[in-house]
Amino acid sequence: MEKILVFAPHPDDDIIGCGGSIAKHIQQGNQVSIVYLTSGEAGSLQYSSEKLIQIREEEARRAAGSLGVTDLTCFRNPDGYLEYNKENLNRIVAIIRSKKPTLVYMPHNHDSVPDHLVTHQLALEGCRRAAGPWFQECGVSPWAVTNILGYEIWTPLQTVAHCEDISDFMDIKVRALQMHKSQIEHIRYDEAVQGLNRYRGIMTGKGNYCECFQLIQAQI
Hints:
The protein is α/β, with parallel strands linked by helices. About 45% of the residues lie in helices and about 20% in strands.
C-alpha cells in the first residue's frame, strides 16, 4: 500500500486535475489524503461566503467519497488571496511528516490562476522542508517525498512528462466532478476536463482517456 497526498487550491481542483488517478490509486489499495488550501468561498455570486464554504466543503466530501477517499483537510485560507506564508508552510510540512506520502500531487508550476500557483509553491517548498532536519514545530521525524507530480487545472501543460491511462475511471471522475454542483452550473468543468482527458489520450496514444502531469520529482 502506498500513501498518496493531494494538495488542491479549491474543492474540485483535485477532481479536475487527478480525479481519475485518485480513483485508480484507491482501486489498487493505496491510501489517499486530500488537502484543500481554500474552501472556494469566492466561487459563486449566489451565496454568502459563509454559506458557500459549507456547500463546497460538503461537495468535496461527497465527490472525494465517491472515489473512495475520506481523509480530507481544509485549511480555509481566503479564496482568491492564498498567501505563501509561515503558517501555511508549517501546516503543510506537519501534514507531510504526519501522513508520510510516497507520492504528492500538486498543481503544475505554470498554472495562470494565482491560488493554483501559490499552492504549487507552498506544496513544493513544504516537501523540501519536510525532508530536512529543520522546523521542529512541524514534527521531529523528517519525511522525504520520493515522487511529485504536477497536475493540470486551468492552464494545460505545454510539456508532458508522465501520462496516466484513466479510461476505466473516466466515468467515475466525471460523476465526482458533477457533485460540485455549485461550480458546474456556471462553468461546465465536467465537459471541459472530459475533452482534455480525451485529447490527452489520443495525442499520447496511452489510452482513450488520460491525465497528464509535470514530473517534478521522481525516485531514482
